[in-house]
Amino acid sequence: MEGRIPPHNLEAEQSVLGSILLDSDVMDELESFLPSPEAFYLEAHRKIYAAMQALRSQ
């Protein structure tokens, strides 16, 4: 499977991140099935989600 691109949907990733920006309480529900930034395909989205998790835990 080397060299294959995993399935991804950048618009869906953007929608998830946008929903967190609009309502941070959404993060409680999302963390149950998106526990790690590695769930995102785009590196920038991983970094944004990790930052959101860090801010949420403060």
TrEMBL record:
Annotated DNA helicase DnaB-like N-terminal domain residues: 6-57
GO biological process, one term: DNA replication
Keyword DNA-binding: yes
A GO molecular-function descriptor: DNA helicase activity
Cellular component annotations (GO), alphabetically ordered: cytosol
Pfam families named among the record's database cross-references: DnaB
Entry keywords, A to Z: ATP-binding, DNA replication, DNA-binding, Helicase, Hydrolase, Nucleotide-binding
Gene3D superfamilies hit by this protein: DNAb Helicase, Chain A
Official protein name in the record: Replicative DNA helicase
